Amino acid sequence: MIDREARLARLQALGESVLQDLKQETFPVVEIPDRGTGNIVFDENSNQYILGTSRVERTAGNYRHIRSFTQLMWVASYAKSLIENSRTSSLRDLYYSSEAFGVEFSDQAESDRVIADLESLVRLSREEMGIYPEENSSVYGEVTMRYSVPGYEGREVDLTISPDGLPIGPALMSSDPVESNAEIILAVESGGMFSRLIETRSWERFNALLVHLGGQAPRSTRRLLRRIHDSLGLPVYIFTDGDPWGMHIAKVITSGSANSAHISDLTVHDAEWIGVTADDIEDYQLPTEPMTDYDLKRLDELANDVRYRDKPSQSQIRRFKELKLKAEQQAFSRHGMDYVVETYLPDKLE
Amino acid sequence: MIDREARLARLQALGESVLQDLKQETFPVVEIPDRGTGNIVFDENSNQYILGTSRVERTAGNYRHIRSFTQLMWVASYAKSLIENSRTSSLRDLYYSSEAFGVEFSDQAESDRVIADLESLVRLSREEMGIYPEENSSVYGEVTMRYSVPGYEGREVDLTISPDGLPIGPALMSSDPVESNAEIILAVESGGMFSRLIETRSWERFNALLVHLGGQAPRSTRRLLRRIHDSLGLPVYIFTDGDPWGMHIAKVITSGSANSAHISDLTVHDAEWIGVTADDIEDYQLPTEPMTDYDLKRLDELANDVRYRDKPSQSQIRRFKELKLKAEQQAFSRHGMDYVVETYLPDKLE
After folding, report:
1. Is B95 labeled as catalytic in the residue annotation?
2. ipTM of this complex
3. Which has the closest alpha carbon to A192: A159, A173, A168, A165?
4. Hey, what domains does chain B have and what are their CATH numbers?
5. A148 touches chain B (CB under 8 A)
6. How many CB pairs (< 8 A) connect A and B?
7. pTM attached to this predicted model
């Protein structure tokens, strides 16, 4: 995360450009990177979605732009005051706060969109501006982080301090890795698996920092994965349910999503999906459920998704389509409580 | 939580009674407290739901009982091995593990039901047997807890250690309060409000231990509330959205639910719902949304619910019905970011 002064400077620069326009008695104009589907391109080099060069103009001189222009300015000023006061706000709080200022959003979806506009305009993620969704995932392992939030500046926390894991909230997301005994990061989909890996001391056995994703990983979790991966050089392995949804949890970590194409520090390109693969279902004789039409339709979508063009992805999709079966992470319990720790994960990791 | 040996002893006693029957060549029989609606009674004294005296027999001598009898025995042995090995299992893991033993459940709902049977039979909650749902809520404040899970025995944790809060998982749930600077417990519905209260240092201002409920509080959270309330003597205040669902979050904490009528240590009878009340909506001029038919139907249900027979509850329901409006906790943000901390909560708490 860039430092506080730099973040404030970007918002201030936006305000000053608008002010200058006003002083010169011209209508203020901002040019926002176009986040429409037509401008989202898959970058072969970085292997992720990024925005193209197209921009959209928003001008106070166009009657139809005034509402969104005002909303954007208000969100920017709200974000500035969050940073200045070292505060955070949920997306929902921001939506409700607008009423105090006579700024209107028809619903939270609209304020969420304007926040994304601001993100791409000033090249700061909402989290860098103190704005968070409510969901959380957790982390556990032998890594020491240094907090920077008020009241905790410089304080270090060992990520094994709480045997239930630590939530990846605003404070942890903005903290910096200091040192580590871990050699890999193992990110898992379900909370049950996360707990199992903690209490069997698998983090010790595999020298792993454990991350609970909880379905599609929140952005703050993806950013923390990226930061720890980059600064400590730890490879990332992802363990999800064996179905198109699990595959996609992993894919969003490696190749990003269209929704966050304007944010660049969320992906870990070389993260590896270890399973549950279609082959695992057969190799480990896992209990399965038949795929629903919805699952199969999702597989078709993935087959045509540019992020799945690589051979291993295509082959997994094909295998799942042949099998028409899916299996959860928990399915390994069929072979005994610790089978996943004693057999499956060593097969995959060692 | 009763100690490990006592928990094991209860499961062992069950096993021994079955074994004795078998040795005497009679069909083993267990008598389970009846958890059907007909046997759930509202206890005026304790002001909560409890089970009546009716019991149901499950006997291996009845062909139709064999399946559920076997399931019950297997869950008991699985629970015993969890306690013996100081392990936990998610409800889902338990369901999948059954396959390893050739025990059949048609779905997780069935294994969840059998777990509840075992709970009422041996008078241990599933958490005391190491069985947890996946959901979590969190806690933050100046209370010190002492862990008892393996690897952490006797280690103390200050609940302000993580500025994002600590999850109330298996380890924290089974830990014991040691000391406290807090004078009240303030339980809030939303994660956004929880974060706001942490970062504004409201826990200091109100001398409050903050608890994030996250909708209907998981049982482990209700149990922790009860434990800290009882052993440190802290009164509990509950702050939820202003709608029937928020009211009911508070009511389940004070008066329990039919589903957990067989568990007695989950309620805090004198916990107080501070709002958002129907009166608050008017008094604080909160932004509102109209109640849906679904909300209004829920209000009717609450009006006829025995737990809402007290005058204040009936009057709140009436007021909501007249207003036909609801408001979220976040609605206070209309009056500025810190209004809820600077004005509303002091009004209610001080």
Report:
1. no
2. 0.87
3. A165
4. 4-132 (1.10.10.10), 138-349 (3.40.1360.10)
5. no
6. 169
7. 0.90
